[in-house]
Write a structure and sequence with these properties.
Length: 660
Amino acid sequence: MKRFFAAAVCLCMLLSLLAGCASPAQQQAIPTAAPEETPQPSEAPTALFVPGTYEGTGTGFGGELKVSVEVDEASILSVTILENRETAGVADPALEKIPAAIVENQTLAIDAISGCTFASKAILDAVTAALTPVCSDMNALQEAVKQDAASSETIELSTDVVVIGAGGAGLSAATEAVEAGASVIVLEKMPAIGGNTIRAGSALNAADPERQKSIEMTDLERETIKGILAAEPRDDYMAQWQKTLSEEFSAYEAAGSTYLFDSPSLHKLQTYMGGDYVGNPEIIDVFCDNALAGVEFLSKYGALWQDGVTAAMGATWKRSHNPQLIYGSKGATFIYPLRDFLERQEDCQIFVDHKAEHLIMDNGVCTGVSGTTTDGQPFVVSALSVVIAAGGFSANVEMREQYNKHWATLNENVGTSNHPGATGDGITMALEIGANLVGMEWIQLTPWGSKAIPQAAIDNQIFVNKEGERFINEDNRRDVMAAEALKQTDSTFFLIYDGHIIVDGVSQTGNKMDERVGQDLDGEMIYKADTLEDLATQIGVPYEALQKTVDDFNACVDGSAADPLGRSLYDQKIDKAPFYASKTFPVVHHTMGGIEINPSTEVLDGAGNVIPGLYAAGETTGGVHGSNRLGGNAIADIFVFGRIAGQSAAAQALSLAPAA
Ligand code: ADP
């Protein structure tokens, strides 16, 4: 759609703008290639742009984003992203689709791409900045695109296994199903794959003595194990786990070992007890026995891991495996190796912008999925088995309010760390055909939002309120920390950390903290200072109180004092400039409940019977985490049960498939 404007007068205005009276936005535009010939008003009666190539900048989630825009007199010829610091994986749809949409539709009235609104806006701002000084009519670039009506013809597809959702659970299910010889279709409703998994700041929990050998066990950790062994068993599973742990720990002590002890039985007990015995021990048993195999599975497809293990926030033990940042973000390492493998498989197709809406049932057997594409075209996928891996419902306010029993409110004023696609569709679809749901009222708030935190090990951070005081032991359970955080002034607090965990502006886990200092991150904010006094001034906290809090904490680190709040995880003192504060507040982070499954991931109905042909895995299910999920257990959960779902679904499908 070309635009022509008879406006010699506009061209004069335009040339005078180029001569110097630019607004702040206009000042960001830099002509990078002079027009071949300066157009003269008499020669060019119609012109929307002064032809040439121009640069502009906008501000994304990671900081400055720079574009180059090439125009002729009447149209935008190309938009190229020159520099960006957006989160790998998360921002990719915006980086690919927004520039193309601008050129294709010759407009800046492009809707932000769901799930990457910061990057979308940054690109549109940057192009606006580039063109404003050289465009005679910016209003003309604000005409919305007229959408062609979508075809109403139903797309019909068929496959052995259809997977709903392309997060960690869905892609691991697809991978195992393809490996087993099944054909697979993955449906993803968002414009990009990855779900919450690609945004994960957490790590993967698995007992891994090889990696834990480099960590010395503390007296407090020994006491923790003794406390777990002394707890009253709730059922036969727990009694058996304690018996196994007791034998393992006795052998460890008899050998005079000093490294950090761990085993699947300790992981099981911590998961069950940490979830207040609400989780299903039969599922927890399978979960912890297979967690380390999840690490090995990802490694097989190309994931690389940092040395050693840490305790993710809320993990309660140092068994969290942190991926290396081979793709630029932590979460991308959980997704891209599987994506790359699946994209090479002839028998696998991944469809983005395909929203599953209903399960298709035939005589009580699940035989496929129906839905609608983002363009509005209906589709049906017939399959021999169906895997629901559509994630949780943290971003669905209505569902949160429907099931919440434990928080004062989870209405629209309570934010979420989740991506906008986390709306519980899998649970809704399963409920519609009679599946049973478990633990739906258990909704986890993290004490902190997702945008300003370093996502580094908790050992080197403290939480202080607006009065400059700690209010909780930071290695506590997330629900306890969130409940305490909600009681602080304005339900807001600051994570305080320092140069021990932020090196050259980047956190241990690769978060580029310095690039976000001072930005409004949906109400969260990162502050940086050379001294604690300056930091206190910046965040508006009394300096004396903050200094005393840090001094008291440092005394606990060197063992000269005990923490009155009962913290047991420490690493280094907070004493190395630069000092940082992340202002944050509690948000809905994870939904522990969901579809009931058995250890093979078959979906159960209200009477405990298997619904044939239907499997589920990941956050869409309930059973593992009970009332409280340990940090780092969700990533382990999605790969353990995603893999089992793929194996089970493929076995079922191949047993039904007609012989070739
Ligand atoms: P998990 O950690 O359990 O794998 P994720 O949130 O990482 O969960 O992934 C779930 C994926 O499912 C997300 O990418 C989400 O957009 C997708 N999804 C949710 N609902 C639907 C639906 N109705 N149709 C297709 N995909 C869906």
